Amino acid sequence: MGNIFDLSTVAKRFRFIAVLEAISWLGLLIGMAFKYSWLGLPDPGNEIGVKIFGPVHGTIFILFLLCALLTARELGWNAKTTILALLSSIPPFFTVLFEVWAVRAGKLGELSATAGTQSEAAVGTRS
After folding, report:
1. Could you tell me if 96 and 19 are in contact, meaning their C-beta atoms sit under 8 angstroms apart?
2. Taking the model in full, what pTM does it have?
3. Pairing with 73, which of 4, 43, 81, 98 sits 20 to 30 Å away (CA)?
4. Cβ atoms within 10 A of the Cβ of 9, count?
């Protein structure tokens, strides 16, 4: 998989921000579970998780949108791919699903090339 903290290319920065956005979603959802006591937690109305992860997620959400637009411009994505990237920021964890799809579909430059080489090598070793 490589080093997730290697931000040397636009594709690697996109991957990092996509994962970060999904993690911030998780924090926000956990905070909401405490606030609204979805899980029958003993202290309903505890808003500390939402107060922390709300602004964190909002900031990372905006950062992801900007990163997606810059990545689209840099890698020459068509309108459909760009819109899918932007829409993936709305449902929880879809940024990671989009990133996996983009790698497999050849949309993330060297990450896609590396994935193709690895899958060809894996097929070759099983033969």
Report:
1. yes
2. 0.81
3. 4
4. 16
Spatial neighbors of 32 by CB under 8 A, at least 6 apart, are 38, 49, 50
User: What is the secondary structure of the chain as a DSSP string?
Assistant: ---TT--SSHHHHHHHHHHHHHHHHHHHHHHHHHHHTTT--SSTT--HHHHHHHHHHHHHHHHHHHHHHHHHHHHT--HHHHHHHHHTTSSTTHHHHHHHHHHHTT-SHHHHHHHHHHHHHHHHHH-
CA nearest neighbour of 66 among 100, 18, 121: 18
Give residue-wise pLDDT tens across range 10-58: 999 999 999 999 999 999 998 888 787 755 565 666 788 888 999 999 9
Residue carrying the six token digits 């956005």:
21
- Contact, 29 vs 52, CB < 8 A? no
